[in-house]
Give the backbone structure.
Amino acid sequence: MLSAVMEDYIKAIYTIGNDTDERVSTSELADYLDVTSPTVSSMVKKLEERGLVDREEYRGVTLTEEGEVVALEILRHHRLLESFLTEHLDYDWADVHEEADRLEHHVSDELTERIAEALDNPGVDPHGDPIPDADLRLPEVDEQTRRLSSAAEGDHVVVRRIRHQGDEELRYLSEAGIEPGVELEIVEIAPFGLVTVRTPEGKQSLPEEIARLIETASVSEAEV
Ligand SMILES: [Zn+2]
């Protein structure tokens, strides 16, 4: 059995590594998990002893094949829980991440499969994150997406996915009327990255650090 903390490290290594396509450094992990570097080093050593990570001095860590299986299992738990809480327990989509962060370590495979069945095996969670299937394969996506922070003025896009680490940024976006499926028009990109968009509810200016979390697909002229 792995502890919840170990599982959180594995999830963090998977998430950061996928975003940067590189080995994950101790300082990146420390930042992400909000702990000190010595704490990270000692935990990474434990994970290495269990064969879950591969560590190279000064170059950071990657997950082993076994580590990646663990990461995908936790993501399956997490994303199905988020979907279940939203669909069946009337949670707002912006309030489920932290709840799922706690529960993901404790649901059995049996419960996970029952949740998947009750939801009819969804491919994405309420934030647009792909859910690994029962064989831990991620659904294939052939659509090109782009971060809102790199959009151009006049672009028409539809929100596909919101990258998040907590509920805070989700609540911010929920209040701004921005969630997966919503169409946006990029009105203005100001210096220092302030992005102004038109949502179906009105204009919203988003700081760059929030715009960077939003993955969008372009809407073709015909659909506008
Ligand atoms: Zn989440």
About this structure: The radius of gyration is 19 Å. Residues 65-88 form the longest helix (24 residues).
